[in-house]
Amino acid sequence: MPLSHVFDTYAKTAQGKKLHFNVILDEEDQQKALSCAKQWLVSIDLEDAVVTPENCYFYHSLEAPADMRADIDKKGYAIYKMEGCPK
Q: In which order are the strands placed within the sheet that holds 18-25?
């Protein structure tokens, strides 16, 4: 399996709520990670959330688990939710 690349990402909503999540891609491309983070935020109805290049940075590479691999193959990215993210 190919290695995927993890971007540690933080966003802040207009209401001041902070979200912490990882964007997982097959490319080590910060601009794509930033774009995917914004896409995901829109998909969970948080289009007002702000994420900047300073808050979306390469963290490490790994072999993505099967569920994340399926998301990457389908959408081009996977999200690993951490603090403040909806279930």
A: 56-62, 4-12, 18-25, 78-81
